[in-house]
Amino acid sequence: MKNDIYTMLNDADINLEQYEKEDFNDIERKNLKAKFRKSINSKKSYKRNIAVATAVTLVLTVGILGGNADVYATRVSNIIGRDIGSLLGIQRNLDGYKTVVNKAVTDKGITVKLNEVILDGNQLIVSSNISSNEKLEGGRSWMPFFTVYVNGKKASNAADGSGKVVDDYTTEEVMTYHLDKVDLSGDLNIKILCKSMLLDDKEKNGTWSFEFKTNGDQLKVDTREMALNNKFTLENGKEYTLSKYTDNALGQKIYASTSAANSKTKSAYDIVLKGNDDLGNKISFYMNYDTENETLFRTEKIDGGINKNAKTLTLTPYAAKYPEKSGRMDGEYKKAGDKFTIDLSKLK
């Protein structure tokens, strides 16, 4: 099956009582469920991510054939996942940036295994797999509801990712959690908690909790950036101001601030920034997430990133309207603004 679907742990226990009041609300769960289904129907490649309301994670090779839940738990705990860099299609060595997790938790016959994590600015990239003795037929896949806490404070406000069903019993994913309103510098205590997950429309309740430490400074040291000032406005009246371009070992990003959409319509749009570099190579940035005040675009093809010899990027914004109901993204991408150029020599 090949369906495109969209976390150094210590053994300390998590005090669940401190998180219960900050668990997923009904709106977050509804949005996540709707966006997750859209990603399953997507025809885009494995590396193409679609933003969702808050979710999970990766890809490893595993074969689990028959047996009870205890057997599944034992086998999954011994799985060694593929390097997170290879899963992201990144050719650079990421050993200096990643934290190896390699821990499995089993509850209610479902095993979640977190493999590796990387903290990139305000994003936590996590690899994991989910397995049970329930057969995944017809493209069925697990959809967990994970929440990330940083130094005891709820930090995740959105997530996106890619994954696939690797056999009849296992879902593999890599997810990026978007962290908000927390200090991500220096040594950090990260806690990831899941108390429910869906298989089709059936909810499975349990507790899958993890703790680990990481550091938010290393990748920041190697990140170059430059200011931007390019604007475009969608048909729904929402204005985007591209404010910053960054480059590091994980790829390239374009940050944008946004204004409120026109009150006449609540239509949502997917946006891509497409064009080429001065060497003639095609370049595309997809919309990684789109919140009320901020939007992030990432390079569509992150294998190797932007050509190191490129001096400029020339891009044009295109937008397509999301369907009103869950389903395929069939809307046509139309030009949404003027062409603009990024001078890469200004990166510092």
Q: Tell me the radius of gyration.
A: 20 Å
Count of discrete structural domains: 2
Helix content: under 10%
Which superfamily, in CATH terms, is the homologous superfamily of the largest domain? bacillus anthracis domain
Structural class by secondary-structure content: mainly beta
**Percent of sequence in beta strands:** over 45%
CATH topology name of the largest domain: Immunoglobulin-like
Say what oligomer this is: single chain
**CATH architecture tag of the largest domain:** Sandwich
Shape: globular
Q: How does the major sheet shape up? A: 9 strands, antiparallel
Spell out the helices and strands N to C.
Answer: HHHEEEEEEEEEHEEEEEEEEE
Pfam family, one: DUF5643
Domain DUF4179: 46-132
Organism: Clostridium liquoris
Domain DUF5643: 225-343
In short:
The chain is mainly beta and 348 residues long.
Structural account:
This protein is mostly beta strands and 348 residues long. It has 2 domains: 16-219, Immunoglobulin-like; 223-346, Immunoglobulin-like. Helices cover 10% and strands 46% of the residues. It has helices at residues 26-41, 69-77, 84-88, 218-221, and strands spanning 98-107, 110-120, 123-132, 142-150, 153-154, 156-167, 170-179, 187-199, 202-215, 224-233, 239-248, 251-258, 269-277, 282-290, 294-299, 312-321, 334-335, 340-343. The strands form 3 sheets. Strands 10, 11, 12, 13, 14, 15, 16, 17 and 18 form a 9-stranded antiparallel β-sheet that branches. Strands 1-2-3-7-6 form a 5-stranded antiparallel β-sheet. A hairpin with a 3-residue loop joins strand 14 and strand 15. The chain is globular and about 55 Å long. Residues 1-22 and 34-81 have low confidence and may be disordered.
